[in-house]
Amino acid sequence: MNVFFSLQSQVAIVTGGGSGIGLTVATRFVDAGATVVIADVSDCAEIAANLGCSSYQVDVSDRGAMHGLIDFVVSTFDRIDILVNNAGVFAGYKSTIESTEADFKRCFDVNVLGVANGIAAAAPHMVAGGRIVNMASLAGVQGCVDLASYGASKHAVVGITKTAALELGEQGIRVNCLCPASVNTPMAHEPGGELLLEWEQVMSPLGRICEPDEVAAAIHFLSSNDCGFINGQALTLCGGLSVGVNDKARRKLAMSSEEVGHE
Question: Considering 150, 153, 219, 231, which one is annotated as catalytic?
């Protein structure tokens, strides 16, 4: 009997795998049969041991360190089938004018260079059928107020994904990225993001934000061999938020306009 979306006998690296979405992805991959390496800037040896996988401490913004990660995986497991470039940072909810050079540098060093370094280090060791999934954001395919540095970095991730897909396709390596709206993690609930969360809950036809398990499921989908013809795509995970204005949101907007008109 076929087992759909099985990752049996696959070797997968998940950067930023020690917490949040990354840990949810690593757990799901283990359950799907993969041999998983959690790569994180923190020491995740205990977390990995509890999951029955391996860990490697690495700063994804350092290309030399990323080559060290790949050398470890190849020497230990003799192959790399899946790379999930999930490690990312956030510089707070700030407008373009409020954002500092340090904010942009922080986001680009990790969110953009981390992805580029992962691809550059891993791709030469992947054979036909290899899969790379990068973590972008809905803020990487459309503008979002007060997410200047983060949104800019995620737009770059989408661009890298499409470029790498063109370049690596001849080797049979697929490269895609995931673009979720706000996910129910500590980042979404940081001070300053209250209005964004309220807006998403109104604008999404589903009336809520995304859960980490739902992001992990989408990454699993893109990482499986069942999806062998999906390449170079930025898969939006937004509950329908990006496709138009739902009736609930229209009514709320109309009511707000009437209240302003009566003032």
Answer: 150
The CB-side HSE value for 184 (13 A sphere, CA atoms) comes to: 10
**pTM (global) more than 0.85:** yes
For residue 243, the surrounding DSSP H or E stretch is none
With a CB cutoff of 8 Å and minimum separation 6, the contacts of 145 are: 95, 196
**pLDDT, tens digit, 9 for 90 and up, residues 43-85:** 999 999 999 999 999 999 999 999 999 999 999 999 999 999 9
CATH of range 11-191+208-241; options 3.40.910.10, 3.90.1150.10, 3.30.540.10, 3.40.50.720? 3.40.50.720
150 catalytic? Reply is: yes
Phi and psi torsions of 94, nearest 5°: -145, 145
Instruction: State how far the Cα of 166 lies from the Cα of 3, in Å rounded to an integer.
Output: 30
What are the tokens at 136?
């972008």
At 253, the amino acid letter reads L
d(CA 12, CA 242): 31
